[in-house]
């Protein structure tokens, strides 16, 4: 009888725990949509994830609305880049009154922690434009960095929900596997593993290494698939970008950034700069201008029309319910198509 009663109580507690987990998921609020999609993948059914900014919105200039502070008031976990991209985030944290999501608290995640940052200024000089003090904060344009971001998010979820640790670790491992195969292709990951591939990709030596190595009488580079395999179609090609928010992506994919539509970060292009840029695109046969969609198409389209270059405007973050994988698919697909089609600039070189 005691045993039966014990089993009954145990079953009741398990049901209550399960109900609690379902009824009260961990509430995750993020500054960027890319972090929200990652939190949703790592957290699964144990979390709800919402982003303050949209994927097609400039994260530099989000107005700190009272509704955002209310979101944070109820948050268990807050994910932000942790650099000086979302300068509005500390204001919202203060207005929320939620002490558990302040920097240094268990509910705060700096997505950039552990990410090797590029463009770290040697000195602060505002004459150089809108310079980020700690380095370029657009870390998520590289899947290598997103792997680190995902681990940071998983660690944050474990801190605020230790009971879900096993779930978060399992989902993180699944996410990392999917990310590696999406980046390199499943065959190369099976042969070499991401522990070998990732450092080579990060330091820019992956392609040379794969070209120098053979497996079954074929160069390993022929087994490169995924985004990097597709990106071989534009590796080494010149591109103009609007702003320096693609630096991690262009470095990983081997694009040669010849110039920027902005003369300096955050500084609108003058007529003189645009004229000089048009001459450079024509002289060097640059075929593509790449810009985040939130900059608008007018300036980019005008330059493209005068040079014959192809304009690519894409969101910098996931939109309309899409995830990070769909986003990078879009970037790689648009660039592959643009370079395959050629341009008037290249033809007239």
Task: Tell me what you see in this structure.
With 349 residues, the chain is of the alpha/beta class. Helices cover 48% and strands 11% of the residues. The chain contains 15 helices and ten strands. The chain has a four-stranded parallel sheet, covered by helices on one side. Strand 5 (214-215) and strand 6 form a beta hairpin. The longest helix is centred in the N-terminal third of the chain and has 22 residues, at 2-23.
- The total count of helices amounts to 15
Calculate the mean pLDDT score and round it.
91
Number of strands: 10
Strand arrangement across the biggest beta sheet:
2-1-3-4
Main sheet makeup: 4 strands, parallel
Topology order in helix (H) and strand (E) letters: HEHEHEHEHHHHHEEHEHEHEHEHH
Counting helices, strands and paired strands, the structural category is alpha/beta
Percent helix among the residues?
40-55%
Shape: globular
Indicate the proportion of strand residues: 5-15%
CA(first)-CA(last) distance:
90 Å
Q: Indicate the radius of gyration in whole angstroms.
A: 23 Å
Q: Segments where pLDDT lies below 50 for 5+ residues?
A: 1-22
């Amino acid at each position: 009888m005691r045993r039966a009663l014990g089993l009954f109580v145990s079953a009741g507690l398990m049901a209550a725990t399960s109900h609690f987990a379902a009824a009260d998921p961990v509430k995750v609020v993020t500054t960027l949509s890319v972090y929200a999609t990652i939190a949703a993948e790592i957290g699964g059914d144990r979390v709800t994830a919402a982003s303050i900014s949209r994927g097609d919105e400039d994260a530099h200039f989000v107005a700190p609305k009272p509704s955002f502070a209310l979101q944070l008031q109820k948050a268990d976990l807050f994910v932000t880049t942790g650099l000086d991209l979302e300068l509005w985030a500390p204001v919202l944290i203060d207005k929320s009154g939620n002490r558990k999501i302040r920097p240094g608290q268990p509910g705060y995640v700096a997505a950039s922690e552990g990410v090797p940052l590029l463009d770290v200024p040697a000195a602060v000089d505002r004459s150089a434009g809108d310079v980020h003090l700690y380095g370029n904060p657009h870390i998520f344009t590289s899947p290598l960095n997103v792997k680190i971001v995902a681990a940071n998010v998983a660690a944050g979820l474990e801190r605020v929900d230790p009971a879900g640790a096993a779930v978060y670790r399992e989902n993180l491992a699944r996410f990392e596997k999917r990310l590696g195969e999406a980046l390199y292709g499943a065959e190369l990951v099976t042969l070499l593993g991401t522990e070998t591939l990732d450092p080579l990709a990060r330091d820019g030596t992956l392609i040379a290494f794969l070209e120098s190595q053979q497996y079954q009488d074929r160069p390993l580079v022929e087994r490169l698939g995924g985004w990097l395999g597709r990106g071989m179609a534009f590796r080494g090609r010149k591109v103009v970008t609007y702003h320096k928010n693609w630096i991690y992506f262009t470095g990983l994919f081997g694009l040669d950034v010849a110039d920027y539509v902005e003369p300096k970060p955050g500084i609108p292009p003058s007529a003189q700069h645009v004229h000089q840029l048009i001459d450079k695109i024509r002289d060097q046969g640059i075929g593509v201008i790449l810009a985040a969609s939130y900059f608008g198409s007018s300036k980019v389209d005008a330059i493209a029309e005068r040079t014959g270059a192809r304009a690519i405007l894409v969101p910098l973050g996931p939109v309309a319910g899409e995830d990070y994988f769909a986003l990078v698919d879009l970037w790689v697909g648009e660039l592959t198509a643009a370079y395959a089609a050629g341009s008037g600039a290249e033809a007239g070189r």
